[in-house]
Amino acid sequence: MTDPPEPSWLLDEALRRIRISGSLQYCFMPQGDWTTDATPAPWRPKDAIGFHIVAAGPCWVDLHGRRTTLETGDIAAFPFGTPHLLGGGAGGRILDPGGDLPAQPWPATPTLHYPAAGTQVRILCGYVQCQATGFAPFRAALPEFIHIRTSGQEDWLAGTIAQIVTEVDQPQPGGGPILERLTEVAFLEILRRQFGTPAPKGWLAAILDPTLSRALLALHDDPARDWTLPALAAQAGTSRSALTARFAELLDTSPMRYLRDWRLYLAAEALASSTGPIILIATKAGYGTEAAFTRAFSRTFHCPPAEWRRRKGGR
Questions:
Q1: How many CB atoms within 10 Å of residue 220?
Q2: DSSP assignment, residue 295?
Q3: Fewer CB atoms near the end CB (10 Å): N or C, the chain?
Q4: For the range 151-155, what are the long-range contacts, defined as Cβ-Cβ under 8 Å and sequence gap of 24 or more?
Q5: Are 222 and 183 in contact (CB under 8 A)?
Q6: Does 165 or 44 have the greater pLDDT score?
Q7: Whole-number Å distance between alpha carbons of 207 and 235
Q8: For the chain, what are the domain ranges?
Q9: Domains 8-195 and 203-312 share a fold
Q10: Is residue 158 over pLDDT 70?
Q11: pLDDT tens by residue, 164-188
């Protein structure tokens, strides 16, 4: 009999499932004193995570009136597209790089220059689409603002950022997929560091909790099983009431609702990556009819399964 997987397996699985399904970035080069409203454009996909990679700083980001200085090598990410300001110096011109971008598709990464007297800043702005944010516990583990500093810390991520900048500066044939993979690696590292930050509650706290980790490992290892609350409590080595209370305390959900959300997330993955009949995906997700599955899926992902498949390019 093999040993059960360790709680770290859950984090490994979470990161393994995170894939970039789309991305966009452009180079923004303002100079002097300036400010721009970096609120995501209405055409940006809803599941996109915005970011700013500072190739040459400094600049600042203002979120809810709180200002953070960004230096060369810093990454600022906004998992929920929270409105914010980006700027350099004090006051100065109001810039609108989003409105100045050329029409898509782009043969190469656009670079927007805004010359003026003073220090020139260089920022790679854009977004990545990440389906993992469709799973509520993963989403809840993310803050609205992530700030990663890499300069002067012998941080391997700084080398990845430097290579991203090189790919933008010196475009080569086939550079688009390389740039996308580099961005994916950087993004995975950002999430790994975020998930590695101790928290009193949430998904990371749950996978480190002795009782909850056993329950979560069981659900993730065999989501298709006909789980009941007594069976899951027995697997976790606790009572039904204690397990339910622990789920509510750390994850703000119930064991069965967590299982439902996990199955629906796996169904969303299957829809995006396969041509399997929707009824089979519905059955695997624990639904007896396609109509019941469609209702549940639509409540979670805000569109029916067939439309989700078309949006995600399911094969």
A1: 18
A2: H
A3: N
A4: 151/71, 151/72, 151/73, 151/74, 152/73, 155/73
A5: no
A6: 165
A7: 15
A8: 8-195, 203-312
A9: no
A10: yes
A11: 888 888 888 877 788 888 888 888 8
Taking residues 233-238, report their average pLDDT: 95
Residue identified by tokens 């110096």 is 89
* Range in 22-26, 100-104, 197-201 with the lowest mean pLDDT: 197-201
pLDDT at 314 over 70: no
Give the DSSP letter of residue 134.
G
User: Helix H segments across the chain?
Assistant: 8-17, 97-100, 136-140, 156-169, 175-195, 203-208, 210-221, 229-236, 240-251, 255-273, 278-284, 290-301, 305-312
Q: Which CATH architecture has domain 8-195?
A: Sandwich (2.60)
Is 300 strand, coil or helix?
helix
Q: Is 125 within 8 Å of 28 (Cβ atoms)?
A: yes
| Alpha helix positions (H), 41-122 | 97-100
CA 221 to chain centre: 23
- AA letter at 62: D
Per-residue confidence band for 17, with pLDDT thresholds at 50, 70 and 90: low
Amino acid identity, position 282: A
In whole angstroms, what is the distance from residue 205 CA to residue 155 CA?
26
Place of tokens 């059955």: 283
pLDDT at 4: 43
As assigned by CATH, the class of the 203-312 domain is mainly alpha
Q: What angle do CA 224, 230, 234 make, to 5 degrees?
A: 90
Q: Between these two residues, 81 and 114, which has the higher pLDDT value?
A: 114
Among candidates 4, 24, 258, 246, which has minimal Cα distance to 124?
A: 24
State residue 229's pLDDT score: 97
The pTM score is: 0.78
Structure tokens at 105: 């598709």
Token pair 């396609």: residue: 290
Encoded tokens for 221: 């290892």
Q: How far is the C-alpha of 202 from the C-alpha of 129, rounded, in Å?
A: 22
Examine the pLDDT at 1 and tell me if it is beyond 50.
no
Tell me the pLDDT of the chain averaged across its residues. Answer: 87
